[in-house]
Design brief:
The chain is mainly β. The protein is built from 2 helices and 10 strands, in the order H-E-E-E-E-E-E-H-E-E-E-E. Bound molecules: 2-acetamido-2-deoxy-beta-D-glucopyranose (NAG).
């Protein structure tokens, strides 16, 4: 083999053994979810998100600030994060991430929480959803 054929072969081998994790949106994709508190009147937001294998715990999000977390999804599988949002004695529930709904929309999924529901924010627009359910809570800060 000539030198150039050898080096071509070597390069080919190197490409072959590259870990697939360098592909950012392959079957195993990394997702970041960002949730910002945009409630009116400077209200604090309490958020509690859980998936089948992860419980983020209760997070306190101050006005105009955000909380984010990262996880891996398999786009052929099913990743679901259910969240409860609480302020002013009312608990609001929303599925903040669902592979089938979101994997084609975002892998940095940036949400702003407003009174009427959460909005998924893109470069130039936002998609607002309504709450999945509401529940009166007479004992504040208990999920
Ligand atoms: C949050 O941002 C809004 C819009 O920019 C502003 O009107 C409001 O005063 C801010 N609230 C706080 C508590 O900083």
């Amino acid at each position: 083999m000539s030198v150039s054929v050898k080096s071509f072969f070597l390069l080919f081998l190197l490409v072959l053994v590259q870990p697939s994790t360098s592909i950012s949106f392959g079957p195993d994709a990394r997702v970041t979810v960002i949730v910002e508190n945009e409630l009116q009147g400077g209200q604090d937001l309490l958020m509690h998100c859980v998936s089948a294998d992860n419980d983020l715990g209760v997070k306190l999000i101050h006005p105009n600030t955000s909380y984010h977390w990262k996880f891996h999804i398999n786009v052929f599988g099913k990743t679901l994060y259910h969240c409860s949002f609480q302020w002013a004695f009312v608990l609001h529930k929303f599925v903040i991430y669902e592979t089938s709904r979101d994997h084609s929309l975002c892998h940095i999924c940036s949400w702003v929480v407003k009174e009427d529901g959460p909005c998924l924010v893109f470069d130039e627009k936002s998609d607002c959803y309504t709450w999945n359910s509401l529940e009166e809570r007479y004992i504040p800060f208990l999920f």
